[in-house]
Each structure stands twice: as structure tokens, then as C-alpha cells.
Amino acid sequence: MSASQNPEPVLSRLQLWSDVELRSPAQHMAVDRELLEGATFPILRIYRWSAPCVTIGYFQDMEATVTANPNLEVVRRWTGGGTVLHGLDAPYSLIVPRNEPFAARRPADSYALIHSRLAFALRDALPDLVCAPHDAPKYSAACFENPVKGDLILGSRKIAGAAQRRTRQGLLHQGSVHLGSPDLPQALKFASALSATVETFLPQL
Fold first, then answer.
1. Could you read off the pLDDT of 104-142 as tens digits, one per residue?
2. ∠ CA(52), CA(56), CA(62), 5° rounding?
3. Residues 46/32, Cβ–Cβ less than 8 Å
4. CATH number where 96 lies
5. CB atoms within 10 A of CB 6
6. Between these two residues, 6 and 33, which has the higher pLDDT value?
7. Hey, which bits of 23-177 come out as E strands?
8. What predicted TM-score, i.e. pTM, was given to this entire model?
9. Can you give the residue range of the structural domain that contains 32?
């Protein structure tokens, strides 16, 4: 897929939720869990943090992270991955229920496909943005210091990463875009690159 070529949709249908409510980190994780357990169609949720915070992967050490970040709320994600400092990043979640064929793809494939669509959406403003071709050496538990294959790289800097979890209900992909703003540029273009059929999602939480 070239930088200008429209990517092949990977989802048959997608509902886009621009979640403008400033929820706490724990509330955001609870929303994603509820969506994963109850969604019957794919949902892309774009949201904001109510305050700077830290999220950690499902299997990371909570006590050590709290000690290292005494002035920030620390919350455990439902997905894996490393430690992520949040504040001026743009977070998003993609929920794909098990009845959607995409939920059955191998983790590396689904990760790369989602990030290639995100890169396509961001390249209008960031033409030099690329997907990392391989894992970089791991230097720390900080997610954005350790690019993995499929992460989005601008120059030598990782600007977008994510983590996934699969359950009997489907796939949860939790991502973060670090461009110095809590707004995700081209969110609709990202959604349209994932699916040719995009609708507005009005939740009843």
C-alpha cells in the first residue's frame, strides 16, 4: 500500500465514538472492558484523559510503578505492553467482537493492519511517518522507549504504540498517539481506513 493509496478495509462495519466525557483512568479502563464484553459490532472509541496518569500492562508490577510515579494515578490496562505516561497523548480503543473475522487474525497481523491504517490517516500532516519494520532492543519497561514491529515512527521517535488482548468476547486494541495534543488528528479518516461503513456510535453506558 503506497502513502496515497486507499487501504483495503479490514472491518465490515465500524461505529465511531468520540467520547468527550473526561473520565478518570480507571473509568476509561472500565468502559473498554464493558465494550469488550458487550459489543456486537466493532467500535472505535476516541477519548481523553481527565488528568495526567500512567497505565501499565496487564502483567506489570503495580507497586513498583506507583513508587516510581508518586504524584500520578496508575491504572492497569486490560491489555499487555509496557508502562505509558499519559497527558498530552491522544488515546483510542478499538473493540472487535468475536463474530467479526478480523478478531481471529494473529496478533502480529492485526496489530500491523490497524497501525498501517492509522499511519495512512496521519500522513497528510506527517508524510515521513513509517511503521517500524522490526522490534528494537528493549531498554526499559517504558513502552515508548521500546518500539516494536508495527509501531509508528517519526524520525527516530516512536509516536504511536498499542497493546492487545483477546478474550472469548473478541479483541481489544488500546492505542496511544504522542503528538503533543490530546486530540487524535484525522480520526474519521482512520475509521474510514478501517472500514468502508462508518457510523456514529451513541452509547448507553
1. 999 999 999 999 999 999 998 999 999 998 876 555 555
2. 105
3. no
4. 3.30.930.10
5. 11
6. 33
7. 43-46, 53-56, 73-76, 84-86, 90-97, 130-131, 152-154, 157-167, 170-177
8. 0.91
9. 14-194
- Residue 6 inside a domain? The answer is no
Residue 199 lies in a domain: no
Residue with cell 499487555: 80
Counted domains in the chain:
1
Q: Do the beta carbons of residue 150 and residue 132 sit within 8 Å?
A: yes
- Note whether 132 and 151 are within 8 A (CB): yes
Report, in this order, helix, strand and coil percent for the chain, each rounded to 5.
25, 30, 45
Residue 195, all three cell numbers: 472500514
* φ/ψ (deg, to 5) at 181: -145, 145
Q: For position 136, what pLDDT does the model report?
A: 61
